[in-house]
Design brief:
The complex is a heterodimer of chains A (about 200) and B (about 200). With about 200 residues, chain A is α/β, with parallel strands linked by helices. Helix content of chain A is about 50%, strand content about 15%. Chain A has helices at about 25-35, 50, 60-75, 95-115, 120, 125-140, 145-165, 180-190, and strands spanning about 5-15, 40-45, 75-80, 170-180, 195-200. Chain B has about 200 residues and is α/β, with parallel strands linked by helices. The chains are: A alpha/beta (about 200), B alpha/beta (about 200).
């Protein structure tokens, strides 16, 4: 495969449920950002089963209220890449004190999200390190099975993204996922460098 | 890399229809409404004839694509150079897709109009020398969806391919089949039973 056939791919972190709050990086900002970037393919967190049934009830807020409406009104094609309906917030340990700590870390992440509410900040180095650290701590409080399930979910998302790239090589692909996944995806996707080139979303 | 806005002029036989059309297009992402006589001319003129007569259609520059908005059963006098026919039974969002498709130099035909056209012209198009079933699998798949009246965007969404990739496959299959339009290609598909005829 030649270099020119490589897909340009950017991973854009979203704020998931925090998008409900009055932030600069709100759903309208996410909508206009994705529309302006005009990727050929937009990988979004919804299962293919739900997407094909037009069932957005279990989709993340940003898919339901920002990304799906973009697909309906532009040439951007949404590719569902979620492997499971279970969201990050549903990974809660049964142990009460561990659960309390996870809730506290979630509040800390939400605080960080409010402070870094612009897409440039949410996808920047500082928030990336903060989010990764908070999530790493929360995941230490999960059970081993929960950690394995989260890992498998992210691996499956990467596989689905790679399949989309292989199906239609040489295109511009935007992957919009909740910020908790961004670190993993950005570290795993470069392994497929023969197929794709990871770029900053502003350079897509 | 940002997508350039597509300039669109809205026109209609009746002023109220024109205002409604312009207001709707303003809400669609990636489009900018300009007057028909603007310089440079709009990339697309969306026109709702409102009546079977098209005598009030403004003069069109060579770079302006004409998209007619019609009722499914309307019989409209067809001016030369129509790039697309958009049925009023489609959604407002589909209008944005149709505008972008004709702005790229492609044709657009709403599914209900495509089916009506196939019924009306069913026996008048000669069979191609090449059997559509000999096309590569992906092109057969795209041809079958085209024959169902799907737009390029709808085909792309169904197959999780980009619109540009679908356009590439269409150009290839037109060349292989020796046809010059999606209507001819769709008719061949129906004749060769690649797609249902209703």
């Amino acid at each position: 495969m030649t270099t020119s056939n490589r897909t340009r791919l950017a991973v854009l972190g979203t704020l998931a449920d925090l998008h409900r709050e009055p932030l600069v990086y709100d759903l309208a900002r996410l909508r206009s950002l994705a529309t302006d970037l005009a990727p050929d393919l937009l990988c979004a967190e919804i299962t293919s089963d739900a997407w094909e049934r037009h069932d957005l009830s279990a989709a993340t807020l940003e898919v339901r209220e920002a990304l799906a409406p973009i697909e309906a009104a532009t040439d951007i094609v949404v590719v569902p890449v979620a492997a499971s309906r279970k969201s990050y917030a549903e990974f809660l340990p049964a142990n009460p004190w561990r659960r309390t700590l996870v809730h506290a870390l979630d509040r800390l992440l939400r605080w960080g999200g409010r402070k870094a509410s612009r897409p440039e900040a949410v996808n920047g180095v500082l928030f990336g390190a903060f989010c990764h650290t908070v999530c790493w701590l929360a995941e230490r409080l999960w059970t081993a099975e929960q950690r394995a399930a989260w890992e498998a979910q992210n691996r499956a998302i990467v596989e689905n993204i790679v399949q989309a790239v292989q199906r239609d090589p040489g295109r511009r692909v935007l992957v919009a996922v909740q910020c908790q996944r961004v670190h993993r995806l950005r570290s795993w996707l470069p392994a497929y460098h023969e197929l794709l080139e990871i770029v900053d979303y502003r350079e897509l | 890399m940002n997508q350039a806005l597509v300039t669109v002029a809205a026109g209609a036989h009746y002023p109220l229809d024109r205002a409604a059309l312009a207001a709707l297009i303003t809400t669609l992402p990636g489009l900018r409404v300009t007057p028909p006589e603007s310089d440079p001319p709009p990339r697309v003129l969306v026109w709702d004839p409102g009546s079977p007569r098209l005598d009030v259609l403004p003069p069109l520059g060579p770079d302006t694509a004409l998209l007619l908005v019609v009722g499914a059963m309307e019989r409209v006098a067809m001016p030369l150079g129509v790039a697309g026919l958009f049925s009023k039974d489609e959604t407002p969002e589909a209008l944005g897709i149709a505008i972008r498709q004709v702005a790229r130099g492609d044709e657009y035909l709403s599914p209900t109009l495509a089916l009506a056209l196939l019924e009306a012209t069913g026996s008048s198009v000669p069979l191609a020398a090449v059997d559509p079933r000999s096309l590569p699998e992906r092109e057969q798949e795209i041809l079958a969806l085209l024959a169902e009246g799907l737009s390029n965007k709808a085909i792309a969404a169904r197959l999780y391919l980009s619109v540009r990739t679908v356009e590439g496959h269409l150009a290839s299959l037109y060349a292989r089949l020796g046809v010059h339009s999606r209507t001819e290609a769709a008719l061949l598909a129906v004749q060769r039973r690649l797609a249902p005829s209703n």
